[in-house]
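Thread: Ubiquinone/menaquinone biosynthesis C-methyltransferase UbiE, structure

OP (GT): Posting the sequence first so everyone is looking at the same thing. Length is 253 residues per the record. Can we get the structure tokens written out before standup tomorrow? I want them in the notebook alongside the other entries.
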Amino acid sequence: MSESPYKSGTTHFGFKDVAAKDKQKLVGEVFSSVAGNYDLMNDLMSLGIHRVWKRYFVATAQVKPGDRVLDLAGGTGDIAALLKERVGSTGEVVLGDINAGMLSVGRDRMTNRGLVAGLDYVQCNAEALPFPDASFDLVTIAFGLRNVTDKDAGLREMYRVLKVGGQARVLEFSEVTVDWFKPVYDFHSFRILPKLGKLFAQDADSYQYLAESIRKHPPQEALKTMMGEAGFERCSYKNLSAGIVAVHTGYKV
């Protein structure tokens, strides 16, 4: 069997081409840098609307009391906290993130909010999850898939750990669908965002990368196709805010 191009070739890190084996380390450096300002970062990138997107993402998910849920790239715990409300005292939410700094910030913030029972934290790579087959009723990843080097492997792993009848959901920055808004969005992303990152977080480069990573992420139809190729059925997506973000959904049947 030939070696995966993700292992032997090059991939993108923002608009730069880098060795695929190096991307995980480079992305890790970005998120280690911004971990303490992650919520601020999302506010700057979305003008605060990310909080509404996340609530919609969870409110429309297939989840009920007693379910076991995996939230990948769980970051500072925004999605996990919302999911915990849905699964209740009898359910469990596993917050997974490849970055130890992000995971630590997330655990501290959840504990400070009094959210302890029914929550687990696992440092893990989305491309090789440390869970048995058919372990979860729902798997989510919000604003994290675009940072996964081998997205196809990540989607296959999400499929593998889902129970039959389970749902996978992806919330991610996507391709703007309104032509007149595209130059406005680009101006905010490439001219304003790095300056705000430098001003508020003393880190322009990480914010520049994050803006670039959005443009390199597969657009809506391409990601829908990728989910189907990973094994998911009934794949669909819904654009929010003129396609600034999209919610992709697939099922294991």
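GT: Both are above now. Quick notes for whoever picks this up: The longest strand covers residues 162-173. Strands lie at 10-13, 16-19, 68-72, 92-97, 119-123, 136-142, 162-173, 233-240, 245-251.
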